[in-house]
User: Fold this.
Amino acid sequence: MMFVWREAFAGLRRNLTMSIAMVITTAISLGLLGAGLLAVRTIDRTEDLYYSLIAVQVALDEPTSADDRDCSSPVCTGLRGELEANPLVASVEYESRDDAFARFQRIYAGQSILQLVRPQSLPATLRVTMADPLRGEEIVTQYTGRPGVRNVVDQRSTVADLFSFLGSVRNATFGLAVVQALAALLLISNTIQLSAFTRRTEVGIMRLVGASRWYTQVPFLIEAVVTGVVGAVLATGGLVLGKIFFLDRLMSGRLLANTIPPIGMSDVLGYVGPVLVVVGAVIATATGYVTLRLYVRT
Amino acid sequence: MIRLENVSKVYPTSARPALDDVSVEVERGEFAFLIGPSGSGKSTLLRLLIREDVPSSGTVWVANWNVGGLAGRRVPRLRQRMGCVFQDFRLLPNKTVAENVAFALEVIGKPRHTIRTVVPEVLDLVNLAGKADRMPSELSGGEAQRVAIARAFVNRPLVLLADEPTGNLDPETSAGIMTLLERINRTGTTVVMATHDRQIVDSMRRRVVELSAGRLARDDNRGVYGVAR
Assistant:
């Protein structure tokens, strides 16, 4: 078995420049795949996070907002009772104008917008938590225009923009990963053919003295697998660096802090890394096998 | 040991068959020359014996193997019991003499300690014990061919096939190679040697199988190269 490994590494050394190109292309492809996987994971988590927080806001009209501190007016009680009886609704909370203003002050503490907003511009609302967050639109149609209601907003539609942004990040990285993967596959296939060609005398002699086809071809497969695994390791390293030097800085900035759940080191090393190693090894092996079957008749 | 029954081989690119209904038998331990002009089918016959090719019709037997009908994955087993020597030696240029011989054992998965004892023995047999660490480029033609023979013989094959082994060598060196092949034959190994070399055939007085245009032209037990062309 030693022999086979020695041959494989001799092969990688012999076509050193090709081997390097092969590893780099594989690494980029797998790195993009990894980035895509991380995006998917972030999207899932963001959805979990937001779906537990978001609600449908039924804003009440000016008279109710101005006078009702605890939803005791007939209009408010009526709406609340009706909403609580609705099977789509999990729970209903009343937020008076004063409560809303207090929350507003908390959220935008220290920002200039505070100077512009008076309590009068904020309505009292019934915060409706949905049993199924995806069906908020139904509450919107049912309650828009009802007496005492100013407007109804499904917060999900606001968050949807964020999701669609994350979704396009994911799609773009996956798309690039596929293109790069194609380049990597062709390079691996090409290198194996080249490697087999440069070693045809040796392989011919091996066959002559009774080496099995398997035995003569395993070194080429190992070359491919080593490429895939080394590429995956480099890709994982790249993702770690990307996380430390790019993502962590971006996430700590004002815009995205606390908006998107952060990606942890365990996501990169514990989840994406192993996935990439397996994917890299499997794809490289498959490419190697198919190449040997189709193009290398020794 | 070797038996051909009505063997024909037609290559798709050629109108005339390379072998045409050839039947011949070589006993265990025999030494047989295979002669005939270029293109008479000698190399084709040897290729059929090691399953480089399959016959178009007829049956090729080596030991108890029906060579033509052998499944691809069984071919290595056949070749492990056969040694091959060629006019162009076919040594690996980047390996030493000892490594070239060891290669034949490595690729069939022999343990390292076996290789370490067997390789010097066989190098001794071919009188190259002192040149184990030379590279093939440092060897004379005769020495290179002796390495090739050592490699073919190191696994103690049932049959040694030699395709023009003296084709590139001067008469004196050729005689040395023949002595070596005879010595190997005396260990019980069947030897089949394809050759053009009239002088060698005439001096050995061994069995001569002559092919002409793919057909069996002559089979003499103690033959000479012959005069009639």
Summary: The beta strands of chain A are 56-60, 89-95, 125-130, 149-154. The mean pLDDT of chain A is 83.
